[in-house]
Amino acid sequence: MSVPPAPPLLLASTSPQRRAILTQLGIPFEAVAPRYVEHDPPDGDPARLVREHALGKARSVAADAGDRPVLGVDTTVALDGRIYAKPADAGDAERMLEELSGRTHAVVSGLALVTRGWEQVEDAATLVTFRTLTPRDLANYVAAGEWQGRAGGYAIQGLGAALVERVEGDYLNVVGLPASLLVRLLAERFAGTYGFG
Description:
The protein has 6 helices and 7 strands, in the order βαβαββαββαβαα.
């Protein structure tokens, strides 16, 4: 008896990193741009904020999902009670990176799974320690442009790897999707359907 194919998740994101991680995990999905506007107050609570954004993104496309589960994800960087969202410009990116230099920050993601019958929202954090960055390090990285559209102003899966001294926790969370959290939720909610649990 053949097992019916798993219904593809509807990913409420245009992020190529999130698409790549789902592909890596062998999870079928279709991606759609969320109809949701994020607002990141610098002094907000990071976990609450990313959970709200993840749920808002998922709900914004849930009407298009039919019977498929909807996945919403949001990620931010936090240090000393301050949220480091996406930099506004190169100067903002350099300021962020200079403040993160030589210190340990948290990459916090909210993940929402939404179906017709239930919603589950959780968050996960990974600690990232930067090496001490010189003015040349900062200038070269900012000039490369990789900071654009990245929470905290860096991409660990790219040139940003050279900024990092240590990662404690789920590396893929820093890339853009808390994979271990997603696998756990799929195993609990859809045991066997997506190959987990």
